[in-house]
Amino acid sequence: xxGILLAIHLLCATIWTxxxxxxxxxxxxxxxxxxxxxxxxxxxxxxxxxxMPALVIQIITGLILSYQLLPNVSLWFDTTNPLSKGILxxxxxxxxxxxxxxxxxFRVMPKLSKDNLLDMALHIIPVTIFxxxxxxxxxxxxxxxxx
Length: 147
Fold this sequence. Notes:
single chain; mainly alpha; elongated
């Protein structure tokens, strides 16, 4: 069961992180250059159909995998334990991702125009960085090179 959960978690991380890398490295430069909110909205509406379910599944599988590593949830916050550090970092990055995503969804996106594209970029780029860091920290659970 652990292997299946890990595979699902990794596939969803691939969808989430890969989509944000494409958004940041390919779509966003064109959007900013052409000052085209419509290009961004088109990408977002297509990506959201797979990206958001992937994020939700990734959160659920991540919590289950964390519980399998440390069944005592209170130990997730014990910074003297290397596994706890990884879990705590991942939870922190997830919280940051959710804060940026909620702000973008409810404050920036409803008023998206040529005038606030930079504000949207200042949400997209950090979320992309957070997602890449989530992958790196996740890999460290298997390699041990961060903790």
